[in-house]
Amino acid sequence: MGQPVTFLRTSSPRPGIVRFELNRTVTGMGHERYRAGEEILGDRPSDELARRMLATGRLSSLHMHGSVITAELAGGDDSGLGDVIASLYTYYVPGVEIPSDEELIAMVES
Question: Residue 58 — φ and ψ, nearest 5°?
Fold first, then answer.
């Protein structure tokens, strides 16, 4: 369940830089910068996406503005990053139990 994020991947004239233009904003109007090895404390969509993308070990840094992600590759390979982006809003994957209506109502009422 959830809606996959679609994107267009483009290269930069600078080697080792790739851009992803998403079909939705992840930062609103703000700029966000993330670096590999730095702790990400927030819980906004941009923070979660940065955590997931940096966890692949393929990036040294990320810059997000609105719906554009600029990624600096740690090596030359960006494989798998598209899957990370596309699954940002996918909550129920195989093996995850979907809550019943009663469980969902109990969460709202508490």
Answer: -95, -10
Contact indicator for 64, 100 with CB cutoff of 8 Å: no
pTM of the predicted protein model = 0.81
Residue appearing with tokens 């969509």: 45
Tokens of 89: 């809003």
Question: How far out from the chain centre does Cα 105 lie?
Answer: 29
Higher pLDDT, 5 or 4: 5
pLDDT, mean of residues 3-21: 91
Q: Is 101 helix (H, G, I), strand (E, B) or coil?
A: helix
* ∠ CA 41-43-49, rounded to 5°: 95
